[in-house]
Amino acid sequence: MTHKGHDRPSPASPSARQARRPIALRLAAPLLLGSAAVIAGCGSSSKPSSTATPPTGTPAALTPAPTLTPGHDVATDASFRAFAEQVTAAMISKDTAFFQARLHETTLTCTAAVISSGRFPACVTEGQVVTGIGAAGWHGNGVIADRASMVRDLTGYAGLASTTSTDAFGGGAFKLAALGRLATATGTDGYVAILTEISTHSNPQTPPNRTARVLVCALYNNNWQIATVIAATDHIDELLKPNASNGFLKSWTAYP
């Protein structure tokens, strides 16, 4: 993947840089390692959210994941590009079986802090282990979502596109916009696909607006899988421009 520069915060103290970084950066790394973290929000927007924003809680019952047989994927830019293209096609065709197989479950051990946060409804007692899919809002909170909800989100997102709308980033049709690597990426983890559209809303009084889905992926058993799904409904320029992610990405390449 061609590097088009490195995203670096402007000079400041480490604590100031951390405060300005999108929360997704702090969420994605631990989720890739299979253990979610409870993280406080670091910003919000008055803009309306897309109707496709991932769920903010975790039902108690989770859909079991199918077991993938060992695959032949490799940690190269070309291999990940091919996977990102498969993901794009699956979102357009609403291929639920694809996402059932390619969403990677993570686990969260419930602590007193997790329970008191109120953001993980499935957490009832300390020491309880909750399994699900890592999800977050761009500049928002992270959760563990159930597999069925995330499959519905990913298969329904492309259908919300307002194909007659345009903005500074082009037409409103759903598309794969960019590929990258997390700033924290090592080895076979931290590959990122950024998909975008101008989304319509359930409320007809709300005008369509640019949104994105950021899929943080890694190799598991030689299969590309989606470890974290990040929904963006504002600050879209941070995702769709090179060198703009404020420390989230160490590389960004426009697609195709």
Textual characterization of the structure:
This protein has 256 residues and is an alpha+beta fold. Helix content is 24%, strand content 26%. It has helices spanning 14-20, 23-32, 77-93, 96-102, 112-117, 147-157, 237-240; strands at 106-109, 129-137, 142-145, 166-167, 170-171, 175-182, 191-199, 209-220, 223-232, 249-254. It is globular. The protein starts with 13 loop residues before the first helix and ends with a strand. The relative contact order is 0.25.
- Using only CA atoms, what is the Rg? 17 Å
Number of helices: 7
What is the number of beta strands? 10
Which parts are unreliable, with pLDDT below 50 for 5 consecutive residues or more? 1-62
Nearest-integer average pLDDT: 78
Keywords:
256 residues, alpha+beta, 8-stranded mixed sheet, two-stranded antiparallel sheet, disordered N terminus
Outline the fold blueprint.
Layout (H helix, E strand, L loop, with lengths): L13 H7 L2 H10 L44 H17 L2 H7 L3 E4 L2 H6 L11 E9 L4 E4 L1 H11 L8 E2 L2 E2 L3 E8 L8 E9 L9 E12 L2 E10 L4 H4 L8 E6 L2
Parallel strand pairs: 2-9
Antiparallel strand pairs: 1-2, 2-3, 4-5, 6-7, 6-10, 7-8, 8-9
Helix pairs in contact: 3-6
In short:
This protein has helices spanning 14-20, 23-32, 77-93, 96-102, 112-117, 147-157, 237-240, and strands spanning 106-109, 129-137, 142-145, 166-167, 170-171, 175-182, 191-199, 209-220, 223-232, 249-254.
